[in-house]
Structure formats: structure tokens, C-alpha cells
Design goal:
Layout: E1 2-6, E2 13-18, E3 21-27, H1 42-56, H2 72-81, E4 90-91, H3 92-99, H4 103-111, E5 124-125, H5 138-151
Parallel strand pairs: 4-5
Antiparallel strand pairs: 1-2, 2-3
Family: Belongs to the MGMT family.
GO molecular function: methylated-DNA-[protein]-cysteine S-methyltransferase activity
Domain Methylguanine DNA methyltransferase ribonuclease-like: 1-66
């Protein structure tokens, strides 16, 4: 397992990969891990490239090997998160209804997502559209949603305003 620190428009990102793929991507506010120099690894290179494209507004989906660690329910929630389109949101209640569960259970699984941005837990909002809970901090969640709205054509401000 290797961990590296990548710089991004929202601050440092701590990236962890193992032989199975990407296992974690945390913002500085989320969790801190000791970062090593980024190994010359194919997965690290792909993560760095795809995140750069995402922040430049040229990538809306990610094509990375993921090695998610969680319960079957958590993995089902995370799989559902990956279906929320770039620039859009879903509520905890909507996801819970689809999975036959309770919104709080979805919220707990969402909070245990170790691969932020790639598994877009920032796209989940409260029933009334309010920004609720984000391990990377609500300001970061707001930045990510604003960034996606700009590049999805939902806001008319010029690129770069989000960061």
C-alpha cells in the first residue's frame, strides 16, 4: 500500500493505492495520512491525470480501478453514488428508497466512503437540497458542487470562479 499527497485546487489530497487499485482519496480536512513521495505506479499516474482533468472541467466520470472496503450495503450505496451525474445531486432519501433502506443508513455509508470525489459522496444532499455532512468539510463540498455546476453548464460564471 502506498500513500501520496497530490495538490489540487481544493487543497492537498491524500491518495492511497494498493495492488487492487485506489483505496482512499481524502481532503486535508477529512483524514490525514503520512504521505510518501508518489510512487511511479500506473494507478497513481491515472489518479493524478484524471483528477487534473476533473478540476480543469474536461472530465466528468472516472475510469480507475477501485478497491473499496466496506460492507455489502456500503458498497451498494457507493455504487449508487457513482451513478449520480456530474453537476447533479441526489438526496439521502432518494437513495434510501432505491436501496430499500433508511436515509440515516445511507448517510452513515456515505460518511464511510474512503474515495471522495471519485465516488462522489459530495453529490448527496438533504431532502430540502441543503448541504449536509461532508467529511472534507461543507466549504469543500460547496466548492465541488459549484465547480461541477459551472462545467456542467448550470451556472454562467466563467471557469475558474469555483476555485
Amino acid at each position: 500500500m502506498h500513500t501520496a499527497l497530490l495538490q489540487s485546487p481544493i487543497g492537498p489530497l491524500h491518495v492511497t493505492v494498493d495492488e487492487g487499485g485506489l483505496t482512499a482519496l481524502y481532503t486535508a480536512e477529512h483524514r490525514l495520512y503520512a504521505a510518501t513521495e508518489a510512487p511511479r505506479d500506473e494507478t497513481f499516474g491515472a489518479v493524478r491525470e484524471q483528477l487534473d482533468e476533473y478540476f480543469a472541467g474536461t472530465r466528468q466520470t472516472f475510469e480507475l480501478p477501485l478497491h473499496e472496503r466496506g460492507t455489502p450495503f456500503e458498497r451498494a450505496v457507493w455504487a449508487r453514488l457513482r451513478t449520480i451525474p456530474f453537476g447533479e445531486t441526489a438526496t439521502y432519501g432518494e437513495i434510501a428508497r432505491e436501496l430499500g433502506s433508511a436515509p440515516r443508513a445511507v448517510g452513515r455509508a456515505n460518511g464511510r466512503n474512503a474515495i471522495s470525489i471519485i465516488v462522489p459522496c459530495h453529490r448527496v444532499v438533504g431532502t430540502n437540497g441543503s448541504l449536509t455532512g461532508y467529511a472534507g468539510g461543507l466549504p469543500t463540498k460547496q466548492q465541488l458542487l459549484r465547480h461541477e455546476s459551472l462545467f456542467a453548464g448550470r451556472l454562467s460564471e466563467p471557469p475558474g470562479v469555483a476555485f
